[in-house]
Write a structure and sequence with these properties.
Helix content: over 70%
Shape: elongated
Distance between the termini: 52 Å
Number of helices: 4
Largest sheet: none
Order of helices and strands: HHHH
């Protein structure tokens, strides 16, 4: 199972790198948008890290109450990071100048 995840690692790193490059090139003139974009990206990286930690846990068949409780806590935090990342990236896009200018819509 770990070999499958290692195959996707270059894709994940490439996508995160291209997003970081896009945020830097497009949003560096608007500091608030840049901060929100990188905060969202950082939240996604944290979520991926927490999801990877789950694979280091023992098999679910061997879990006791402590492991099950830890798993519930980690998945809740991981989902919160994904939610925050999506919200921050969306806020960055909506805050970007020109997003809602009337002149550009016409």
């Amino acid at each position: 199972m770990a070999a499958i995840h290692r195959r996707f690692l270059p894709v994940i790193v490439g996508l995160l790198g291209s997003l970081a490059f896009f945020f830097w090139r497009r949003l560096r003139g608007v500091p608030g948008c840049l901060v929100l974009g990188f905060a969202g990206l950082g939240a996604y990286v944290a979520a991926i890290g927490l999801e990877a930690v789950v694979y280091l846990l023992p098999s679910m068949a061997e879990w006791g109450e402590a492991e099950a409780s830890r798993y519930r806590g980690m998945t809740t935090i991981e989902e919160a990071f994904e939610f925050f990342g999506t919200t921050a990236i969306a806020a960055s896009a909506l805050r970007y100048p020109g997003t809602f200018d009337e002149e550009e819509r016409a």
